Amino acid sequence: MICPFCGSNEDKVIDSRAAEAGKVIRRRRQCTSCDKRFTTYERVEQTSRIAVVKRDGKRVPFDRDNIARGLDAACGKRPVSEDAKQRLVDEVEEELHREFDREVSSQVIGERVMAKLRDLDEVAYIRFASEYHQFKTVDDIMEELKAMTSKPKDVKNQQGLFP
Ligand SMILES: [Zn+2]
Known about the structure:
Layout: E1 11-19, E2 24-31, E3 37-43, E4 51-53, E5 59-61, H1 64-75, H2 82-99, E6 103-105, H3 106-120, H4 122-133, H5 138-150
Parallel strand pairs: 4-6
Antiparallel strand pairs: 1-2, 2-3, 4-5
């Protein structure tokens, strides 16, 4: 596993335990190069029925790792624990499977992640939102912040706003 701190791919597992009632194996690893510790999670691959409809209309299978990667990028150096990030991805995944039968737009997924991330860490939220919306200027970011703060926190029933 590539060390998130130094990029080395040599590490040793220092702890390994079941989580989420045995559905997940959580491994605590230590980089043999920089000695920093990080956590990985192993789970059975879901044969998800849900397809994600991207902006260009292409459909791809839902992949929770895509969300996790976006979160990791947004949370770099922020005080957001691995557990908190995993929980966020779990929650989004569960919501999507509960509420959508066959397909869901990538916009909806992005909005769900942003709504939860906003409660977790505002800086990470802004980073994620600016990546997601591809903000060009500070004005764009301010506009989005204004829009988000004037919205009610629960975005559940607002899917129609993001066609
Ligand atoms: Zn390292």
